[in-house]
Amino acid sequence: MKKNTTTVGIAVAVMMTHSVSAQNVTDSTKKYFASLLKSGNEADKALLQTKLYDLLQTKDEENWSTASNYFYQLGKAKTSDSIFNAQKVKFPLGMAMRGEEVTAVYDEKDPVKKEAAYKAWVKKFPVPKNTGTNNIVYDYARNAVAMAYANAGNTAKGLDYTNMVETNLWKGNAYMSLAEAMMKQGNYKEVESLCKRTLESVNEFKTFRKDEEGAGFARIAFGGANAMYAKALAAQKKYNEALPYIKTAYDSSERVSPDTYQTYADVLSALNKNKEALDIISQATLKGLATQPIKDKTKALYAKVYGSQEGYDAYIEKLNKEMVAKMLQEIPSKMISKPSPQFTLKDVDGKVVSLADYKGKTVVVDFWATWCGPCKASFPAMQMAVNKYKNDADVAFLFIHTWEKGAGDASAAAKKYVTDNRYTFEVLMDLKDSVSGENKVVSAYGVNGIPSKFVIDKAGNIRFHLTGFEGGNDAAVEELSAMIELAKKSS
Predict the structure, then answer these.
(1) pLDDT in tens, 192-220
(2) Cα distance between residue 316 and residue 226, in whole Å
(3) Strand 452-456 to strand 461-467: parallel, antiparallel, or no bridges (unpaired)?
(4) What would the pLDDT profile of 1-30 be if each residue is shown by its tens digit?
(5) Average pLDDT of every residue of the chain
(6) What confidence score (pLDDT) does residue 148 get?
(7) β-strand 362-368 against 452-456: which pairing, if any?
(8) Residue 272 gets which letter from DSSP?
(9) Could you tell me which residues are beta bridge partners of residue 138?
């Protein structure tokens, strides 16, 4: 995946004709470029390339960034990288170089050295006088320094750098990042303060600033801030105060997190509302989000409500059956049918493996990377699925490591990770192509984010596509199993 840390919302300066102007591009021109990119006509792709090369004749760095980004989307990663590198030379104090050198701030672990790196970076690339989302790159760097100090126990310095955040629509997220660190350290009073500030910021974008660009993004922090506020209050045994906040978090979230279910049940239970607590936490099982702590809490609450554990297993079995039944009802509507791109890759030991080798089998292809947190979080569930089908000769799993980062041996790193964690996965390596600089297989599948899973039937057609991981191993296995079984029947 291309790493381009320039600016947010880059504007292009180009005319619709073959000549180029330095004025800002209009929305209609952006749509025009997008239509050329999506066109299946090679002449349109050629026309887009011509216009992108025209952008490189200007002295506007944003044009160069636009050209680089569009070439990448055209599948010409090598050209994109060449333009990006030339851009850094042509504009040594520009946005590309600024984005390149800020990595020194992110890479440093020691908070004092990280702060020094930040100050050196800002001295070389002063904060522009104009405000807005284009300056958010500075806020990200400030947040990195804030978190380094907070995690080292220096709350004051963490607050100092968090208070420097300028982008209004991102302030709530910055406060929440710091609050998370404070929660881990048991600094609940500071968590309360930060959550209050988050809610004040978010409420602006829920009321008189609701129509501003980015307001929807700013409002995302609302549920999390209420949940964390409640968790901090509950940790101080302020259960009556915590109740309205956790209820708001629960009621306002489209997808309730396992942690919110847990906190809500904890608060209700502490207030001797055990039946309500059991009803709430049971929803986590019904939604397929029952982590081990939630399972333990459900069992404890059941005993409190019914006086013993008698009947508990039947209760859980009923919840699981309802969860599976609802899942099975919804899964067929997610079924698709399109030819799977073929590929030939090497595994972590250098053995050549092709998708064609699995002709006649139902194949699960899982794109992942060692740096991807959600990918790794999904692996216990994936191991459960692999174990479930280990004796089924008609089902195979291929774990494709892609979008490698850094200069190290990606194959060795991938092998070490699965070996250290005792995963019995067949891992293939989708390394960058030496000519195009592209990870060809992940691009062929049109993947925009990982983890990304595809269920391919015996005839070689993609029948299901899953992206991300929300937690809840049991539900993940049931969902994938249902998809495998439907794929087996469809081919």
Answers:
(1) 999 999 999 999 999 998 998 888 888 99
(2) 29
(3) antiparallel
(4) 333 333 222 222 222 333 333 334 456 777
(5) 89
(6) 96
(7) antiparallel
(8) T
(9) none
Q: Which residues of 300-316 are buried (b: 16+ CB within 10 A; e: fewer)?
A: bbbeeeeeeeeeeeebb
Q: Which CATH fold topology does 100-328 show?
A: 1.25.40
| Across 69-92, average pLDDT | 89
Position 32 pLDDT exceeds 70: yes
Q: Which range (106-110, 132-136, 349-353, 467-471) has the least confidence? A: 132-136
CATH architecture of 338-490: 3-Layer(aba) Sandwich (3.40)
Contact (CB, 8 A) for 44 and 81: no
Based on DSSP, count helices (H) and strands (E) in the chain, helices before strands.
Answer: 22, 8
DSSP state of 469: -
| Domains 100-328 and 338-490 are alike in CATH topology | no
Domain range list for the chain = 27-90, 100-328, 338-490
Distance CA(86)–CA(88), nearest Å, equals 5
Q: How far apart are CA 389 and CA 3, in angstroms?
A: 37
How far apart are the C-alpha atoms of 195 and 226, rounded to whole Å?
7
Tens of pLDDT, residues 46-66: 999 999 999 899 898 888 988
Q: Which tokens sit at 42?
A: 């090679």
Query: Of 267, 264, 268, which is closest to residue 256 (Cα–Cα)?
Result: 264
Phi and psi torsions of 368, nearest 5°:
-155, 180
List b or e across 318-350, with b for residues whose CB sees 16 or more CB atoms inside 10 angstroms. Answer: ebbeebbeebeeebeeeeeeeebbebebebbee
Tell me which residue of 210, 130, 194, 196 sits closest to 166, measured CA to CA. Answer: 130
CA distances (Å), 324 to each of 276, 287, 395, 481, 482, in order? 23, 9, 21, 11, 9
- Count CA atoms closer than 13 A to 34's CA, side-chain side: 7
Tokens of 334: 């997610």
DSSP string, 36-61: HHH-S-HHHHHHHHHHHHHHTTSS-H
Spatial distance between the Cα atoms of 240 and 233, rounded to a whole number of angstroms = 9
Angstrom distance (rounded) from CA 239 to CA 267: 6
CA-CA distances (angstroms) from residue 54 to 36, 64, 320, 427?
15, 10, 59, 43
What does the pLDDT look like over 337-365, one tens digit per residue? 999 999 999 999 999 999 999 999 999 99
Specify the pLDDT at position 2: 38
Residue 175 main-chain phi, psi, to 5 deg: -65, -40
396 HSE (CA, 13 A, CB side)? 21
Looking at residue 11, the DSSP 8-state letter turns out to be P
Task: Tell me if 334 sits within 8 A of 324, measured CB to CB.
Answer: no
